[in-house]
Amino acid sequence: MSSTTAEAGARHAATPPARKGRARLSPLERAERRLGLMMLAPAVLLLCAVVVYPIVELVTTSLRFEHLAQPWMGTPFVGLDNFARAMSDEIFWSSTLNTVIYIVVTVPGAVLVGLGLALLANQPFKIKWPVRLGLLLPWALPLVFTGLIFRWFFEFNQGIVNNALMLVGMSPRQWLSDPFLAFVATCIAIVWKSSSFVALVLLAGLQTIPRSLYEAAEIDGAGRWQQFVEITLPMLRPAIVVALIFRTITAIQTFDIPYAMTNGGPGHSTETLAMYIHKTTIDFLDLGYGSALAVLMFAVSVVATSGYLRYTKRDPRKEA
Amino acid sequence: MAGVDIRQVRKSFGRVDVIHGIDITVKDGEFVVLVGPSGCGKSTLLRMIAGLEGVSDGEIAIGGRVVNDLPPRSRDIAMVFQDYALYPHKTVAENIAFGLRMRGASKPDIEKLVGEAADILQIRHLLERKPGQLSGGQRQRVAMGRAIVRRPLVFLFDEPLSNLDAQLRAEMRIEIKKLHQRFGTTIVYVTHDQIEAMTLADRIAILKGGHLQQFDTPDACYARPSNRFVAGFIGSPPMNFATVDIAADASSVTLGAGASAAVPQAARPRFDAAAGRRAVMGLRPEHVRPASGGEAATAHGAVELVEPLGAETLVLLRVGDAALTGRFPPEAKLRPGDRVPLSLALEHAHVFEEETGRALARAA
Ligand SMILES: Nc1ncnc2c1ncn2[C@@H]1O[C@H](COP(=O)(O)OP(=O)(O)O)[C@@H](O)[C@H]1O
Ligand SMILES: [Mg+2]
């Protein structure tokens, strides 16, 4: 790693300054470069319209007072007041904590379950499509729909979970009205839903590992478990990191499933930051404060995922 | 060390029969090359010896012990794959050490053995690199290092040189031969390249369509091919074949279109078996030469193509209906269209049955 950066630095130092380099471009190269920029322009404009503009809008709103239920107040600039309010808002902290717990539980949960599913689906089945379909189905299901299905699963009187418990002689549980059990139930639903995407990513990764590596390992004397630890896991690392990034980003934004299953309840016990932002802006119409909360969530997202990016750059096949 | 016995081995994938009952006995310390065109079942046979494919029928024994039901790791073999199959995320040292580590060797032992193997293959300076940072030839050496470090009973090679350029291939061929001389370990080596087979093997097993065609020393395969397929497969440039009508007393052969060649007295026994019949005559390019000085021409040929190679010149000739390649001395200056008197060394000719390709009379 360090040697390559040093090399890159040396190469950089050796090349003449950019302007001189440009002067040496042939007319053909210059025309090609101009064409390239022109082809990029629509994408850049689109990005500006759908990403940059809303972010700028969000940040400026977060620095203002803007409450649709109090239009007479106008939209005065209030500096960091909204952020200060968040720091002393108990629900902000509890919903942030809930979000963190969702991340800590469902990201590893989904990756573990997804890895298991991917390994299973990678077995040499005679008929492959039912396995693949089984993997795809949870992924294709809309989130809210998933939430509703699981709400029904965990329902007290007719839910299949309680029915199953009673079948084996256990007493039914108040799944959705006990704070702890409600959290467990929503976590199960989230893991079920998101492990299918993780499994698809990891399955694609598994299929890039050449068979001959396993054959060589078998001849070298490695058993099943050793092959998994010595070959599958390290070869799968880039795919696992990608899956972790995607799962973490979506976990930070956890919304639909708790919304449909418990609507954040009982109390605020399953309410996430995204749900609190939604409530603040859509239900309470407090756009200024909601925007400040969204900015905070965005910042957390960036910090959390940039940690992973360090790992994606490292290709296990190349590094010394 | 140990020999390998392949007894009446068959293999089918589902309904498709790929190996149709092969018998090969590899002696202890012998270098046997399995050779044949692509798809003839060489890799399948090798993978059955390794235990990577099951045996449908028959028996495989290593060192006298039947291994049909043993997993690869219990067979005490090492294999070099065509794509090398190096572990991309491990360093060269870790790659070579892997088999030792899986077998529970101690750290100091591993270090010592890996160092020795690296020295033999001259890759000590590469030990800390990853396979992705190596050239093809270097990867090849690492793959061999991984094989020799365990001192197995048998080395198995599956087309190990086919991903290298011609020069490296020649270099590594020598390297492999040296390794065999050094360790004396039994080797079963798969290739589709007859030159590799000729240069490396103690004995060559020639396969075609899952059938063993001949199993013999390189010299014997060259001098006494058991059928037309072997005759055409071994040797470069390949043997010439011509459909000939043999006179009833075997004194001459007709190559069609009025061209005929006299069969010298000494060579007549070779043609006796098909006397008065039609057969396929095989004649190696070195036995098609220009008639020199006082020598009487046995046939005449029209030059079609001239390929100077420096030390010799290959000349494609038409004699009657037959196209014959001859190895001419480089000073023979010929041009397409020239008519040359030829001396066909029919005492070295091979005669094959027209229908089956079976060798009728073998050169002594
Ligand atoms: N796993 C397999 N399933 C079905 N057919 C196979 C399999 N492996 C090899 N074959 C078939 O067996 C024949 C021999 O293959 P192979 O041993 O790889 O040939 P070679 O190494 O001589 O080129 C080929 O026709 C190939 O298509
Ligand atoms: Mg093969």
CATH topology of the largest domain in chain B, by name, is Rossmann fold
Count of distinct strands of chain B: 21
User: Could you estimate the helical fraction of the residues of chain B in percent?
Assistant: 10-25%
Distance between the termini of chain A: 7 Å
Summarize the topology.
The complex is a heterodimer of chains A (320) and B (364).
Chain A: H1 2-14, H2 18-23, H3 27-62, H4 81-87, H5 90-121, H6 129-140, H7 143-153, H8 160-167, H9 179-206, H10 211-220, H11 224-252, H12 256-261, H13 273-283, H14 287-312
Chain B: E1 4-13, E2 16-26, E3 31-35, H1 42-50, E4 57-62, E5 65-66, E6 77-80, H2 92-102, H3 107-120, H4 136-148, E7 154-158, H5 166-183, E8 186-191, H6 194-200, E9 203-208, E10 211-216, H7 218-223, H8 228-233, E11 240-246, E12 252-254, E13 260-262, H9 268-272, E14 278-283, E15 288-290, E16 299-308, E17 313-319, E18 322-328, E19 339-344, E20 350-352, E21 359-361
Parallel strand pairs in B: 3-8, 3-9, 6-7, 7-8
Antiparallel strand pairs in B: 1-2, 1-4, 4-5, 9-10, 11-12, 11-14, 12-13, 14-20, 15-19, 16-17, 16-19, 17-18, 20-21
Bound molecules: adenosine-5'-diphosphate and magnesium ion.
Structure commentary:
The complex is a heterodimer of chains A (320) and B (364). Chain A has 320 residues and is mainly alpha-helical. Chain A has helices at 2-14, 18-23, 27-62, 81-87, 90-121, 129-140, 143-153, 160-167, 179-206, 211-220, 224-252, 256-261, 273-283, 287-312. The model of chain A is unreliable at 1-21 (pLDDT under 50). Chain B has 364 residues and is α+β, with helices and mostly antiparallel strands. Chain B contains nine helices and 21 strands. In chain B, strands 6-7-8-3-9-10 form a six-stranded mixed β-sheet, sandwiched between helices. In chain B, helix 5 (166-183) links the parallel strand 7 and strand 8 (186-191). In chain B, 42% of the residues are buried. The model of chain B has no long low-confidence stretch (mean pLDDT 90). Classes of the chains: A mainly alpha (320), B alpha+beta (364). At the A-B interface, helix 10 and helix 11 of A face strand 6 and helix 2 of B. Magnesium ion is lined by residues 42-43, 159 of chain B.
